[in-house]
Amino acid sequence: MIDLDDPLINGYLRRLIGEDGITLIRNMPEGEVTDEEICNVLNPLKTQSKEADDKVKKLKAEIKAAGENQTDVKKLEKELKKAEKEAEKAKAAAADEYEITLNNVRKILFILYENKFTVCRRERDANSGWLTFRWQINMDGIDYQIEREKKKLYRNLIKRKEYEDSNVFYVCPQNCLRLVFDEATETDFICPICGEDLIFEDNELFKQLLDNRIAEFGEMPK
Ligand SMILES: [Zn+2]
Asked: What are phi and psi of 124, to 5 degrees?
């Protein structure tokens, strides 16, 4: 299993699938599971509440079916009362539980699938014809993905540094925009949005910050 608390891995996954996605990976049941099974695991109190409601429904149906049989009905009604009390308790407990919806679970699984972090097996029910998707997480490719991300970030930083090095910038004091010299001459050094005079921007500090970020990468294959 990967270390989800590793800052690089955690940051990468958070951008990809958000905090809910990390929670999903952390709590993913063993083996192949359906999206609904994952959803139940992620929302334990809501699942308990749903199960308690189902029990109430089942008992009500049983009472109906028992009909004239008074002994059975009495026994079942006693059970029903208890079940209703429990269902109410479970509902109250679940009310404040943070919810990760089934829709969100599906979205996360799909993004993971696109990035080859899940294996999915389709199974068709012989009777109903329904398709069931069974999911399994496989994060083996994460090191490779993170290496790729790092290279991309590094390339962007180098590009940005070159851009900052080879241009002179003018900005609006109201922060409307930032123009390179040629663009600023076209507007006569006046902000086209608010009309204020543009001022020269010293970008030395920003370039220094870029250099520091680039240096953090150390030796990096391009
Ligand atoms: Zn302006």
From this structure: -100, 125
Q: What separation in Å is there between the alpha carbon of 169 and the centre of ligand 1? A: 14
pLDDT, tens digit, 9 for 90 and up, residues 122-161: 999 889 999 999 999 999 989 998 898 889 889 999 999 9
| C-alpha 205 – ligand 1 centre gap (Å) | 22
User: Is the separation of the CB atoms in 217 and 150 below 8 Å?
Assistant: yes
- The Cα 196–Cα 65 span in angstroms is 82
Residue 178 Cα to ligand 1 midpoint, Å, equals 9
Q: Report pLDDT digits (tens) over 3-49.
A: 899 888 999 999 999 999 999 999 999 999 999 999 999 999 999 99
ipTM of the assembly? Answer: 0.98
Tell me the CA–centroid distance for residue 175 and ligand 1, in Å: 6
**168 CA distance to ligand 1 centroid (A)?**
18
- By the 8 A CB rule, do 220 and 156 touch? no
Q: How far is the CA of 192 from the centre of ligand 1 (A)?
A: 7
Domains, the chain: 7-140 (1.10.10.10), 143-216 (no CATH)
